[in-house]
């Protein structure tokens, strides 16, 4: 196992911050005013960017979140959860004119459905991000963008954001998450400015289809995307994850065999594990993937996206076994 090397680089996460209402049990709705009894309901921190930020901070990485919330009860839940996890929220601006976003997650052991009211999520702009990068107070680190398709103001500006970040010395990373419109526009021009692209298998296939990538297998599609710029890091559920860059061999990292409580945010915790490994100076790709896969696995042991996230000592212990 590779150990952290020296003080970690900073991570700046850009994207969505919202509350999640996670429902578990008999979650398939039946209309006609039928009442259903659930196993559990939890109001927790949501948003891909927020969950990633909590994950990296909990793994000992200095982490800031750039996002927007409303001046309401859900916004208070979001800010409190972020601060308790050690995330710097100085760039999470509170809006009094728009409510905080909310997702209702119908969670089953092997799958989930998500209903989202966007609220403040789309209000972040490219100018906000570039201004933060240009006035960053410390050493540059890793810029990670998440919840891409929920923030249309960022879609058109993402290439400029990533290009500016790279010119300032940042490592650039993107997890698009799923496109609710299933159009996947805006990804292709960003690829040449990316160091890391972090889809799951379904997102990989959708992005590859949208940009006309060559290949029939997932590995061929990922390799084709990688030739346009980034290392492609693919989340592969219970199997862990794998990555490829250019013509190099595929690298793999297995997850853990574990009793799953809730898969909400597991992909974001995978991202956090990978970014934390990179920030801590883990220098081999197979070990960065192992950090990612184990972090994603451990996150499924409790309800919600952040309650099960490992700290550095728990992750290190799991890796050593």
Describe what you observe in this structure.
By secondary structure, the chain is an alpha/beta fold. It has one domain (about 10-30, about 35-310): Ribokinase (UDP-N-acetylmuramoyl-L-alanine:D-glutamate ligase), CATH 3.40.1190.20. The protein contains 10 helices and 13 strands. It has helices at about 50-60, 75-85, 125-135, 150-155, 160-165, 200-210, 220-225, 265-280, 285-300, 310-320; strands at about 10-15, 20-25, 40-45, 65-70, 90-95, 100-110, 110-115, 140-145, 170-175, 195, 230-235, 240-245, 250-255. The strands form 2 sheets. A 9-stranded mixed sheet has the order 5-4-1-8-9-10-11-12-13, with helices on both faces. A 4-stranded mixed sheet has the order 3-2-6-7. Helix 1 (about 50-60) packs across helix 8 (about 265-280) and helix 6 (about 200-210) packs across helix 7. The longest helix has 14 residues, at about 265-280. The model has no long low-confidence stretch (mean pLDDT about 95).
What are the defining features of this structure?
10 helices; UDP-N-acetylmuramoyl-L-alanine:D-glutamate ligase; 13 strands; nine-stranded mixed β-sheet; alpha/beta; single chain; globular
Beta-strand residue fraction: 15-25%
Give the strand tally. Answer: 13
Tally of alpha and pi helices: 10
Instruction: Tell me the structural class.
Output: alpha/beta
Give the quaternary arrangement of the chains: single chain
Largest sheet: 9 strands, mixed
Could you tell me the radius of gyration in angstroms? 18 Å
């Amino acid at each position: 196992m590779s150990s952290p090397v020296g003080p970690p680089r900073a991570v700046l996460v850009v994207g969505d911050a919202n509350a999640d209402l996670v429902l578990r049990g008999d979650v398939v709705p039946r209309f006609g005013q039928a009442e259903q009894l659930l196993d559990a309901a939890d109001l927790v921190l949501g948003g891909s960017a927020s969950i990633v930020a909590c994950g990296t901070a909990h793994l000992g990485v200095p982490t800031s979140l750039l996002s927007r919330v409303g001046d309401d009860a859900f916004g208070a839940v979001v800010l409190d959860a972020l601060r308790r996890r050690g995330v710097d929220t100085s760039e999470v601006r509170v809006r009094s004119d728009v409510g905080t976003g909310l997702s209702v997650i119908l969670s089953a052991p092997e799958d989930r459905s998500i209903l989202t009211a966007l609220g403040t999520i789309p209000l972040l702009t490219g100018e906000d991000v570039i201004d933060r990068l240009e006035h960053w107070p410390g050493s540059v680190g890793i810029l990670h963008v998440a919840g891409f398709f929920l923030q249309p103001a960022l879609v058109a500006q993402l290439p400029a954001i990533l290009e500016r970040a790279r010119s300032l010395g940042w490592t650039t990373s993107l997890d698009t998450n799923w496109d609710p419109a299933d159009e996947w526009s805006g990804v292709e021009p960003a690829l040449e400015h990316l160091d890391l692209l972090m889809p799951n298998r379904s997102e990989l296939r959708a992005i590859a289809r949208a940009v006309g990538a060559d290949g029939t297998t997932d590995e061929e599609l990922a390799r084709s995307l990688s030739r346009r710029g980034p290392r492609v890091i693919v989340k592969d559920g219970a199997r862990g994850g794998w990555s490829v860059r250019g013509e190099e061999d595929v690298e793999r990292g297995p997850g853990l065999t574990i009793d799953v409580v809730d898969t909400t945010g597991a992909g974001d915790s995978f991202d956090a594990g990978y970014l934390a490994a990179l920030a801590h100076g883990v220098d081999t790709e197979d070990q960065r993937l192992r950090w990612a896969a184990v972090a994603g696995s451990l996150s499924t042991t409790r309800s919600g996206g952040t309650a099960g996230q490992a700290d550095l000592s728990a992750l290190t212990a799991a890796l050593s076994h």
